[in-house]
Amino acid sequence: MPPKPSARSPRPKRDLKAWMERVLEKASDVEKDFDTGSVHDLRVALRHCRSIALGLEALDPAAQWARMNKAAKKLLRGMGGLRDAHVIEKTVKKLGMKESTSGRSLLLQMERCAKKGKRQARKRLRAFDRKQWRGWIDELPGRAAHLRMNSSAAELIVLTWWNDAWERHQAAMQSRSKTEIHRLRIGLKRLRYSAESFLPACYVQWGRDLQKLQDLLGDVHDLDVLQGELSSLLPAVSKTERKKWRAAIQARRAPKLREYREKMSGPKSKWHQWRSSLPEGKNLDRARAAWLGVWASYLDPDPDHSRRVARLAVGIYDGLAAAGLAGMDIAPARSLLEAAALAHDAGRSYGEKHHRKATYKLVLKQAPPHGWTFAHMEMIAQIARYHRGGLPDQQSKTWASIYREDGAGILLLSGILRLASALANDRATNITRLRVRREGESVAIRAAGYREIGPFASHVAEARHLLEIELNLPVLVMAAPNPASA
Predict the structure, then answer these.
(1) Domain hosting residue 94, numbered range
(2) What are the beta bridge partners of residue 434?
(3) Could you tell me if 272 and 300 lie in one domain?
(4) Residue 390 is part of a domain; what is its CATH number?
(5) DSSP 454
(6) What is the SS3 assignment for 32?
(7) Is the CB of residue 363 less than 8 Å from the CB of residue 357?
(8) Which residue from 43, 182, 297, 461 lies 20 to 30 Å from 450 (Cα-Cα)?
(9) In sequence order, what DSSP letters do the residues of 53-111 get, joined into one string?
């Protein structure tokens, strides 16, 4: 669970709409005088927009996220040359080398680079389509609202970036190369922005440390860039000055790397503290199901109904498991069932006809959430496909593929989903609670608000058939005596 907010910790200042509006504001500021502060502020705003776009691109099938991300990336790169010239000039002055022969030559070179950077920046700003950006401001924040901040799905997005940054950290600590340290800095930056955008409850605890670490590695990177510029400086730096530069750079670089290692190494490192705030075990499987549910919500005409089906399906599963009837070899069976329930109506976006097949294909095309594989997606697709309608013919390839691996478990989960879907289809009844028990040689499901006669009961009776086959027991669905007992 996300940690409790701390009054002393930094809090996220803006949402997507505010960051996108800030891009327009700072782009206008940069055009006025191209000063260091405006360039920096524009780049920060662009990175925040890209961070959100990268997180939602995998969930939302709309192409606007990729287009916005591409536009932001182009403008960000357009500011890169100017930013590098500003930083190198500032670093030379910090090192106290500006009066040396090579220092003066380098500053003159940076003046030329700054002029070139301004021309590049001006060109990018002119090509930047502000009208299109305003159109995205009107549309994308609403689409982003499908993902609730601090939700399980949001945790999974941040965990994905945590894993990416952690891998970069390990590579950097092993090789200690400039390239790997730079990649680590980028990974930490993405983790920071994703936490701020998607998991503000964690960001209030992490933000200060992430900012500090980003600054440390940023200073190291700036010194490395300066070293590269010195190596290419013409005329070449003299041996005496080269020795002074190397000593001055190392005197500033080494303590910053040492401070980073002290904070981020060992069992009490910030890595482990951050990871402990993110889901693990069963909670991680549930987060994956929730993530897939957010994806389905962009396609499902009635995602609230699918969430209701998912609650009923999980309730039936838990009841069967408590009765010793849901034992199966599929490790994350409960979460696969929940994911299938959340996604089972995604195909309706393509129309009512053959929507189950459409759902099956859509799920298979979707990239798996972090930690799941395409095999998991295949099982989810199969469970969702057979939540209603006819079962595959026993001679068909589909039937053979179901039984090749985990077949009995998949059909049992499909049977649970069929029954849950039937129970949720009567909108007037609004069954939200149920109790499942084994009573002798049958399974009794008592549902609050269920009506045992009429067309709805007939529909439920038909829907329980697959579950009865897989359990090899009759399933009795009946009204609960009262809400308290359901």
Answers:
(1) 16-276
(2) 447
(3) no
(4) 1.10.3210.10
(5) S
(6) helix
(7) no
(8) 297
(9) HHHHHTT---THHHHHHHHHHHHHHHTHHHHHHHHHHHHHHHTT-TTSHHHHHHHHHHH
Helix (H, G, I), strand (E, B) or coil at 34: coil
In order, the DSSP letters of 240-273 are HHHHHHHHHHHHHHHHHHHHHHHHHSSTTSHHHH
The owner of tokens 């500053």 is 107
Is 61 inside any structural domain? yes
What is the spatial distance between Cα 367 and Cα 379, in angstroms, rounded to a whole number?
14
Same domain (yes/no): 265, 296: no
Give the DSSP per-residue string, 146-196.
Answer: TS-TTSHHHHHHHHHHHHHHHHHHHHHHHH--HHHHHHHHHHHHHHHHHHH
Percent of the chain with pLDDT over 90: 67
- 133-153 confidence digits (pLDDT tens): 999 999 999 999 999 999 999
Alpha carbons 390 and 385: distance in angstroms, whole number: 10
The pTM of this model reads 0.89
Q: Which residue has the tokens 């549902």?
A: 447
pLDDT tens per residue, range 81-110: 999 999 999 999 888 888 888 888 999 999
Structure tokens at 68: 């916005």
Residues 238, 40 contacting (CB under 8 angstroms)? no
Residues 89 and 120 in one domain: yes
Provide the pairing of β-strand 442-447 with 434-439.
antiparallel
3-state secondary structure of 447: strand
